[in-house]
Fold this sequence. Notes:
By secondary structure, the protein is an alpha+beta fold. It has helices at 2-20, 32-47, 71-83, 87-112, 117-129, 131-137, 142-159, 166-178, 183-198, 200-203, 207-230, 232-238, 247-262, 267-273, 276-290, 294-300, 322-334, 339-350, 353-356, 368-387, 393-417, 425-428, 432-442, 459-465, 470-476, 499-502, 505-512, and strands at 61-63, 66-68, 448-451, 478-481, 485-490, 493-494, 519-525, 538-542, 548-556.
Amino acid sequence: MKNNKLIVFLIFFLAFILRFIYLGQIPAELNRDEVSVGFNAYSLLKTGRDEHGRGPWPLVFKAFGDYKIPGYIYLVLPVIKFFGLNAFSVRLPAAFFGFLTIIVLYFFIKELFPKNEWLAIIACFILAIAPFHLHYSRQQFEATVALFFTLMGLLCLLKARKNQKMLIFSLLAFLASFFTYNTSLFITLPLILWTFYVYRQDFLVKKKATVLNIIFVFLIIISLLGYWNLVKEGNRGRTNTTIFNQIKTKEEIDSNLFLLNKKGSPLVIGRFFNNKLIFLTKAFIKNYLAAFNPKFIFITSDNNYWHSLGYLNFGNILIILLPFILMGIFKIFINFKEKHNLWLIGYLFITPIANGLTIDSPILTRLLDFHLVLIVLAGLGLEQFLFRQKKNNLKNILFGGLFGFSICNYLLTYFLIFPQSPMNASSWLTGIREVCQIVAKEEQKYDYIFLDSNVELGYIFFAFYFPFPPVNFQREAVWKFDGFDKVYSYKKYYFGLNVNEMNNFNNLKDIIGEGKSKNILLIEKITPEISITKEDNKFFIYDSFGKPIWQLKSIII
Length: 557
């Protein structure tokens, strides 16, 4: 027992180190969502309003034409107050709650499998080094925080089988998850109902307990409806990411009806086989099943560079764990009459629901809960392999060597190669922090500063790294909408001209006007189309291989 406690402590310590070491430096750059959350939290701190001046203390944050849930932004606010506006502050809540998730998982599995502490230990270790969870704990991801609250809610719900007072803590945890990320809105109620069904003999043992459980479900439903009403403006924006509001669906139905009618098919038959319900069902099944794609889970992850290291040949979970996940699945289905196994089966099939209801699937951010189930299943399989089969030292040595190699390979890639990888440049805007730092030091020399508009939403990086004073920014920023909400200009800064337009003096004169000559700084992100020439009026920023990636050009007009 003492040895087990030491092992658990070492796993927690490892998880802490992996999530907090060089947190502000790896990943090497903040992505645009991170700087947006950071600047909005900073704006709240200074003015009580978001970057658009909406407030005071809004529950929906408009950003880039989308709407953000408030939970993470309000978590960042006190961190910025103590540590300043920087990468560490923005990422700290994700790292903190990511670390706490591993601790909660330990007690969650002990509650679910009270006689199998080794399963809890193994699952916690796998989650501590899991690529998806480590990566998501080192960036500003609301989903990481929501995963903690959902798991905490489930732990308290399972404990409520013996202590009804735990329902209060379960309710509070689930409510916190609603204000953190959307996935919990879709899976929480099904998980609660499934828990009550599987453990109905525990929950319905007394009439008083039954009444309390009904009140609990009623409060969850009221909380969901209340949340949707509070953030209804944001919900209208998020419907564009669901299968229910796609113009393409209507166009495809109309096209099929037209073609059937052209061949003389009665309209009633056409509508029977081509209607919104049929198409939505097909879309849901397709997106739902995409979550189970082994290529997505073990090799490529999704196609968003912020979400994964697929371009460095790492999936969400180390591929060496695939056979153990299959062993875990086989075990819970064979022994489904045991309540904890039956409950896990439901957990496995409920968690991809949110992914099924949204477009561009599979998206890892919507599937963290699903991957947590896979971690538990991997733990079940690995525990079976290590402790419930005939002892074979050679087998254990071979597996230990392969598993150790896989972990070291991943960690070396993540902490040493990933921060320097040139494949990061386009998605992570490698060098943008250095650009902002240089411009901040030199801005007094220039009357106008232009940033290449091909740097998508580049204004938010300047607002974050300088930072722009929120009161002035809310008053003086000139906005435009072209698919995203963008700042066209703020004081001497202009973000609306592309490289060709910036290098056309007539375009610049239209902005600065005639008269006294002006000092102008042009900031260009170097692409294959941009010619690079060494001139005295140019300054370059280079990547890890010495290749120029930014060009700062000083001119006088």
